[in-house]
Amino acid sequence: MEMPVAAGPYGQTQPSCFDRVKMGFMMGFAVGMAAGAMFGTFSCLRVGMRGRELMGGVGKTMMQSGGTFGTFMSIGMGIRC
């Protein structure tokens, strides 16, 4: 059963706190993935990785930074509501 959502002015509904936390995580994850792609590519190329090893290193860095940034963004959105 869906929880009732508070209605704002003009009849539109406000997102729930959980929806805001989810949205904060997704936004943070996307920004963290972009930053991880840049920093991961630079650091992996600097140590001499090529090919499949490079892709794995960049992917790992993207997932780590996306998860970290997404976690902090979701905490921030949770504090706001």
Explained architecture:
- This protein has one domain.
- Helix 1 (17-46) packs antiparallel against helix 2.
- The two termini are 22 Å apart.
- It is built from two helices and no strands.
- The protein is rod-shaped and about 55 Å long.
- The mean pLDDT is 90.
- It has 81 residues and is an all-alpha fold.
- It comes from Liparis tanakae (Tanaka's snailfish).
- The chain crosses the membrane at residues 25-45.
- This is Reactive oxygen species modulator 1.
- Belongs to the MGR2 family.
- Keywords: Membrane, Transmembrane, Transmembrane helix.
Give a quick summary of the entry.
This protein is mostly helical and 81 residues long. The chain contains 2 helices and no strands.
List the helices and strands and how they pair.
Layout: H1 17-46, H2 51-80
What is the string of helix and strand elements?
HH
How many discrete domains?
A: 1
Mean model confidence by pLDDT: 90
Low-confidence stretches: none
As a percent range, the share of helical residues equals over 70%
Keywords:
mainly alpha; Romo1/Mgr2; transmembrane; Reactive oxygen species modulator 1; 2 helices; 81 residues; transmembrane helix; membrane; 74% helix; rod-shaped
